[in-house]
Design a protein that fits this description.
564 residues; alpha/beta; 36% helix; globular; binds flavin-adenine dinucleotide
């Protein structure tokens, strides 16, 4: 079996993984970045609108400060933000974005030549630095370039299946080489998980096909809890039926949301902030309009109207949005409204980490020596119950950088590490049995059933009854996966159906946790809205949820106080 050694391994080549690698390179000289897709196709590349920092240099935001940024973040997160983590995020934001600028990110500028900043929902002042509407693209390409300069080793198209562990220490990883079909052992002195989010468990999502939350399932398999998974963010403006995001910057630049009567309906729900209220509030407003029959033509979508903005502004500040609307909906936003609907976008929850990005959960006595997590897969708890736009790229680079530094300092050499070959061959057998299964249920069929259940029963509005129904259906899907799944493609090389089957196994695993956590939380807060418990309840629920699978396979619930 092929064995590859590195001092430090980073799983994920998005903003978090790439930023971690740059920082780690200052401390160790032998690190590898593994990605199941080509690194430059990681989802971070699709981020559009911007990255937050209280730079305060555009004239209308001079009074900005990290404290205001922190206050907005806590308020937007419905008070479920851990203050220590929020402070790290906001206090270091300016330094971290300036570093990006120095690495080559071409941020858009004002006519005075200073870095421009645009408004975003829930931020009390214009705070989002941006590179037109391709901010993620600019950031990922610059971080990648910096890594190439530093000689980082990249392993593209390797699918990480699991950690190799001994007690609470990580010895390395077991991965499947998508290009050859081989199982490969990676040994390492420390591992950083930067595997991104799980939005693909929903029908309509802005996230790329790789956003299947593999890191969450890896955590669950190793007895690690996942935190606050009931908080899934739906983005207000997905292009109708397409799973393509129309950035919030379109509203930041002055766009209106309108219903079938042409009303700016947000005045009913958020008269002060209107379209720039935090996302959870805008989405619920939209969903109510749709449910009450005021969607466009009575259907399940609304209009995003930019026609009152100048052609010049749209072309300069929202060029990609215009292109996407033209290419995918045959609509020119300069002249016509864009049809939009809410779609799954981001997961506030994830693998619990401390502010050094180390995986830990004191409550259930889980503290890993050399396992770290950063970016969307992690829950250091800076977004609480609802993330503000532009805070996620910031989180990815802030905690990616910290993970890189602390993991590198912790990483010992992997020389002489003994890996239990039996554990590794278990994965080889699992893949063989997936390929040999003669079941009747196709991977795509099972996956679509899961996505439908999650969307219908665990979406913007949830109820106890729906969530119980979702759980029962997920149990059924898990049984079908184990007993009836068929992978029709038996090829060794580039077997995308097999890869999809592995991802589906992961999705079925943590979907159960999302639904259980949503069922347990009998209140409404941030992105989690229970129609049967519509009020926020601080006396019982001002706490983080931590769910893990015990050794018998049962899901166990624990809770933790918010650091206020
Ligand atoms: C369309 C869109 C627009 C957005 N716009 C903004 C914005 O303007 N501002 C903002 O702040 N946030 C935005 N976000 C959110 C933000 O972009 C993401 O949360 C963030 O980029 C996540 O970065 P990441 O590094 O954690 O993960 P990702 O960029 O998703 O990268 C995950 C990496 O992990 C790898 N990986 C996953 N599983 C495995 C496995 N099993 N084996 C090996 N490798 C694996 C993948 O190959 C990939 O390299 C947007 C999100 C979307 C979807």
């Amino acid at each position: 079996m092929r064995t590859i050694d590195h001092r430090l391994l980073i799983v994920g080549g998005g903003a978090a993984g790439l930023r971690a690698a740059i920082e780690a390179d200052k401390h160790v000289d032998n690190l590898g970045v593994i990605s199941k897709v080509r690194t430059l196709r990681s989802h971070s590349v699709s981020a559009q609108g911007g990255i937050a920092a209280s730079l305060g240099n555009t004239g209308d935001n001079e009074s900005d400060s990290w404290k205001k940024h922190l206050e907005d973040t806590i308020k937007g997160g419905a008070d479920l933000v851990d203050r220590d983590a929020g402070e790290v995020l906001t206090q270091n934001a300016v330094e971290n974005v300036i570093e990006l600028e120095h690495m080559g990110v071409p941020f858009s500028r004002t006519s005075m030549g200073t870095l421009d900043q645009r408004p975003f929902g829930g931020h009390s002042l214009p705070r989002a630095l941006y590179a037109a509407d391709r901010t993620g693209h600019a950031i990922v390409y610059s971080l990648y370039g910096e890594n190439v300069k530093r000689g980082t080793t990249f392993y593209d198209e390797f699918f990480v299946l699991d950690l190799l562990t001994e007690g609470r220490s990580v010895l390395g990883l077991v991965a499947y080489d998508i290009k050859t079909g081989e199982i490969v052992i990676f040994r390492a002195g420390a591992v950083i998980l930067a595997t991104g989010g799980p939005s693909q468990v929903y029908d309509l999502t802005s996230s790329g096909t790789a956003s299947t939350g593999d890191g969450l399932a890896i955590a669950l398999r190793n007895g690690i809890p996942i935190e606050d998974m009931e908080f899934i963010q739906f983005h207000p403006t997905g292009l109708k039926d397409k799973g393509i995001l129309i950035t919030e910057a379109a509203r930041g630049e002055g766009g209106y949301l309108k219903n079938d009567r042409g009303e700016r309906f947000m005045k009913r729900y958020e008269p002060e902030n209107m379209e720039l209220a935090p996302r959870d509030k805008v989405v619920r407003g939209m969903q109510r309009e749709i449910n009450e029959g005021r969607g466009i033509n009575g259907e399940n979508y609304l209009h995003l109207d930019l026609t009152h903005l100048s052609r010049e502004k749209i072309k300069r500040k929202l060029p990609t949005i215009r292109e996407l609307a033209l290419d995918f909906a045959n609509i020119d936003p300069v002249e016509q409204s864009i049809p939009v609907q809410p779609m799954a976008h981001y997961c506030m929850g994830g693998v619990p980490t401390d502010i050094e990005a180390r995986v830990q959960s004191k409550e259930i006595g889980v503290a890993w020596e050399n396992l770290y997590a950063a970016g969307e897969v992690a829950c250091v708890s800076v977004h609480g119950a609802n993330r503000l736009g532009t805070n996620s790229l910031l989180e990815a680079v802030t905690f990616g950088k910290r993970a890189g530094r602390f993991a590198a300092q912790q990483a010992s050499s992997s020389d002489g590490v003994e890996v239990d070959e039996a554990v590794v061959s278990k994965y080889g057998s699992r893949i063989e049995s997936l390929l040999e299964n003669e079941g009747s249920v196709k991977v795509s069929e099972l996956r679509d059933r899961l996505k439908r259940i999650m969307t219908e029963k665990c979406g913007v509005f949830r109820s106890g009854e729906d969530l119980k129904e979702a759980l029962n259906q997920i149990y059924q899907l898990q049984e079908d996966y184990d007993g009836k799944l068929v992978v029709e493609d038996s090829s060794q090389k580039f077997n995308t159906e097999l890869k999809m089957a592995l991802e589906l196994g992961n999705m079925l695993d943590y979907s159960e946790v999302i639904v259980e956590a949503a069922l347990a939380r009998e209140e409404s807060r941030g992105a989690h809205f229970r129609t049967d418990y519509p009020e926020r309840n601080d006396s019982d629920w001002l706490q983080h949820s931590l769910l893990h699978r015990d050794s018998t396979g049962e899901i166990r619930h624990q809770y933790r106080e918010v650091d206020t």
